[in-house]
Amino acid sequence: MAFLEVENMSLEFGGVKACQNVNFSLEPGILYGLIGPNGAGKSTIFNVLTGIYAPTRGDVRLGGESLVGKKPFEIAQKGIGRTFQNIRLFKELTVLENVMTSFYSSSHTTLADMVFQTKKFSSEEDEIRVKSLELLDVMGIKDLSDVPAGGLPYGKQRKLEIARALGLNPKLLLLDEPAAGLNPAETRELTNLIRDIQKARNITVLLIEHDMGLVMNICEKIYVLVQGQLVCEGVADVIQNDKRVIEAYLGVD
Amino acid sequence: MKKINSTLLLILMFLGGALIINFVMSGFSVSPGSLLWMKPGRFDGLISPYYYSILIILGINIILSVSLALLNGFTGLFTMGHAGFMAIGAYTSASVVTFLLPNAPFVIQLFCGSLAAGAFSALVGFFIGTSCLRLNGDYLGMVTLGFGEIIRIVLLNIDAVGGARGMTDIPVYMNLGSVFLLTIITILVIKRIRDGRLGRAMLAIKENEMAANMMGINPLSIKVRAFVISSFIAGVAGSFFAHSEGYLSTQTFTFTKSFEVIAMNVVGGLGSLSGAIVGAGILTVLPEGLRKLQDLTGIDIRMIIYALTMVLIMILRPQGLMGNKEWKWLSSK
Amino acid sequence: MNEFIQHTINGLALGSIYALVALGYTMVFGVLQLINFAHGDIFMLGSFVGLYFIRYGIPNAEPSFLTAIMVIIVAMAGSALIGVIIEKFAYRPLRKSPRINILITAIGVSLLLEYGGQLVFGASPQFFPDILPRKNIDLGGNIILDSNQITIFVISFVLMQLLQFMVFKTQFGRAMRAISHSLETANLIGINVNKVIFITFIIGSSLAGAAGVLYGVAYPKIDPLLGVLPGLKAFIAAVLGGIGNITGAVIGALILGLSETYVAGYISSTYRDALAFVILILVLLLRPAGLLGSKKIEKV
Q1: Which chain A positions have a beta carbon within 8 Å of B203's beta carbon?
Q2: Is residue C145 part of a domain?
Q3: What whole-number distance in Å separates Cα of residue B38 and Cα of residue B52?
Q4: Does the beta carbon of B3 lie under 8 angstroms from any beta carbon of chain A?
Q5: Pairwise CB contact (< 8 Å): B215 & A117
């Protein structure tokens, strides 16, 4: 049963058609890939899913409920977590604090709790801290928890961004080029990590990636976006042999 | 440990500290008058009334500075109208005490006056915060500057609070002990807000509003909360100011005062609570300390040195004196 | 009706002075994205340079057109000098710092000029002598056109035409407009950014200096704090017109001058100062780019 449905979604800026009649749906617990040439509109689809852009036409539904018109933070609270192509960490906060921010909407301490440091406050803070450290542990950066996030090496920043998105306890995790800028060894490690996390937590992952090795390796189903339109979907073998995909990437003779 | 008890313990400690300060300042008198509601000038001189009043102003300035740090330093909302909130608080408390509770005991006056001051200032802060949330950066600064000035001009035109003549005969009951108590409580409250989930959300918004959104944080609601809390505290500071001076003039609350508070934040180090305190300390004490120089040279170059210091610190140490460091007792670890 | 015309004349005179100051604000904001809070004080210094020049430079000069021109030129030169000194020693070292630092510096410089002014000139108001033969022209029906107002109109108009020419017809103007689009890009394509900023301060400050003299002519009591409120209002005028936009600054200043005079004339002079701030808030909340500003507002 599909829990995220994108139906006839189009997005236009002025006269520019960023997405045209995009239709797809995601099933729970599956790792999807979204590929396509530069400028195809992949990140734009993420921005529509997370409410940064409202689609010009069409609908986006999560668990049957339309997300169109919802604010980005509301959509995040409903269980869509994401990372950014150009990393957007809270650079001055420590690694641990970065992850802790993602527990904001699932925690309940009031202003009075904070000011008087009540039992509720300390137990909730401890709980958030423990959970955040667990996530950092999963991503293998627990030992860096007190370092300002801006001071991390690039690859670890990418990992931190994933840890932070996981703090939301998302049903759907959107990863925007998680391996960009990583060397082959780091990419391999991250690839395995993404798959392990996806399986262990049984969440849906949709990832944008240019590293075809990574995509073909772990994605169970792949969507191909060309000039704002989905041209092809399927498993790795189907995609690799699809004529339209080859044309889009290599051009027509 | 039981956290409530440790908070209570802290408050009792500070209360004790406040009583000791008043005890010492009043020349070791044990009468309740000198311990609780001693007025400046009525003590027999451990330090001169002049230094005494500087210490009181220092406390009030620290309160203002840390309340602005919450908005400016933590949430990243650049505002230039803090004097307006202080003015609302000062005039509200003075009016409540003079017109509504002229015969109440001083504890009631102080409590009701300051509470009303904070509440009314917070209400205005809520209104201003919600109306200019779409704006960022300099534009937010300009709008708040406008609001601050309008508040002042409106007060100037209310005859009941003295208008251009100023408001006189406000009961004076701020003593060093109570200012100390309230300053330290304010600092701790702001530190604790910063260290809780609200503070993390504020810092996240300052760092990257888009990413904060993706963490399920509603930036607009957090910003309004920052406005409300900050203006509440600035209002209370205004109330203390009114009851330490006994006289209010709208000339005190021009945009120059707002700039002064911003300067305290920036000189100390924007984003650092300790910095806000250091900045308030320097910019309060410096002009007064330079009075000696004036006595020596015979010309009034205090304010020139004050202004020059501000410029030099910005040029030579742009991150402020404390940078983003905190003293140990104010750090989040 | 006659009263209305009289207010309009007075309002336009006030607006012209605001316009000259607002131009400096808007030009500096255009190139540096800086609200130069010291600009109002440069305006004040222009007034004092003019006054001291009359007093010590040409003590025996009769009020005449030539005297007026001389005083204005000297005041412009004096203000320009102060403007570039400020730019070089206070703003330039901070070119790469966060904007709030530069803003605090601007505030510091502003205080420095105000208190320095009090030290040098004394805090009490001084009388600004006539530099032109004074004559009231009765236009009939109780409408009076002060000859000083004519001076203000003529001089403001000439200076604004000059500025318009410089900004839109010269190499410097092109470079300045390029910088206001993007300082980095301008730098990359080989524009000498420091030089252009330098010249921008010269022009902006000298206009403020001229405005200072005209202010002294119109309101002949000057003191070291006179720049604070007109400076702030000129800045508001620049925001109203669309900050960074030169034509906008002039239009904004004329609107502000007129509406202030009407409010003072028809409602109450105590609310005159509030009006400017109400305008500021309304513009920023409803149309942050100002009347003539383009959509692009700020880089977050």
Answers
A1: 90, 92-93, 97, 101
A2: yes
A3: 12
A4: yes
A5: no
Whole-prediction pTM value? 0.90
All CATH 3.40.50.300 domain ranges of chain A, comma separated, are: 4-79+170-250
Which of B68, B135, B151, B153 is the mutation pick for testing C, counting most C CBs within 10 A?
A: B153
Inspect the structure and tell me whether chains A and C have 3 or more CB pairs less than 8 Å apart.
no
Q: Give me the number of domains chain C comprises.
A: 1
Residues of C in contact with B131 (CB under 8 A): 285
Residue B156 inside a domain? The answer is yes
Which residues are CB-contacts of C155 (< 8 A; sequence separation ≥ 6)?
A: C72, C210, C214
Structural domain total, chain B = 1
- With beta carbons less than 8 A apart as the criterion, state whether A229 and A21 touch: yes
Chains that touch A (3 or more CB pairs under 8 A): B
Distances (CA, A) of B147 to A59, B88, B143, C272: 42, 12, 6, 15
Could you say which of B208, B216, B324 has the minimum Cβ distance to residue A76? B216
Per-residue model confidence as pLDDT tens for chain B (333 residues): 445 567 778 888 888 887 787 777 766 666 666 666 555 445 555 677 788 888 889 999 999 999 999 999 999 999 999 999 999 999 999 999 999 988 888 778 888 999 999 999 999 999 999 998 888 778 898 899 999 999 999 999 898 898 888 998 888 877 788 888 889 999 999 999 999 999 999 999 999 999 999 999 999 999 999 999 999 999 999 999 999 888 999 999 998 899 899 989 988 998 899 999 999 999 999 888 887 777 777 666 777 888 888 899 888 988 889 888 889 888 876
Q: Which range marks the domain in which residue C217 is found?
A: 2-226
Q: Is residue C87 part of a domain?
A: yes
Q: CB contact, 8 Å: B211 with chain C?
A: no
User: Residue B106 domain-assigned?
Assistant: yes
B32: amino acid identity, one letter: P
Cβ distance B196 to A114 less than 8 Å, yes or no, reads yes
Domain presence at residue B243: yes
Q: DSSP character for A112?
A: H
Q: Is residue C253 part of a domain?
A: no
Residue B108 within a domain: yes
| CATH, domain A4-79+170-250, list 3.40.50.300, 3.40.50.2000, 3.30.300.30, 3.20.20.70 | 3.40.50.300
Task: Give this complex's ipTM.
Answer: 0.92
Q: Do B315 and C281 touch (CB under 8 A)?
A: no
Q: Yes or no: say if A40 and A68 are a contact pair by the CB < 8 Å rule.
A: no
**H or E element at residue C246:** helix C246-262
